[in-house]
Amino acid sequence: MRLPSPTRAAAAVLAFRRPAAAAAFLLAAALPAAALEGQYRVQGTNPGGGGAYAGTVTVQRTGQTYQVVWQIQGARYVGTGIGGPEGLAVTYRSGNDTGVAIYIPAAQGGFDGVWTYAGGRQVGEERWSQR
Predict the structure, then answer these.
(1) What is the tally of structural domains in the chain?
(2) Most buried pick, 25, 44, 48, 75, via CB within 10 A?
(3) What predicted TM-score, i.e. pTM, was given to this entire model?
């Protein structure tokens, strides 16, 4: 399975700097709010070619935010997300590791994203597919 290009998610983020482009992106990606919640299979690559990984992620709405919990090769990462079905920005923590991620709906279902550790200079890629 080929993971998404980091430029696709980054382009979505940059589109928000231009209101007309942001509006078009939001309308094109409109999904029911419940479409975000659920359990997903995760496949990803670490920043800088650090290797591939797989696991699961659970997304649950918690008021105006989302709780995002990854289980990746024995490690648990807990995050808080904001956004909605058009895109989700998440900050996460596991022990002393913290980071940030952004996800957008994938054409084939699920979500594609990019992420980095706090202070990172490169991004990893991640794909969530429905379980």
Answers:
(1) 1
(2) 44
(3) 0.76
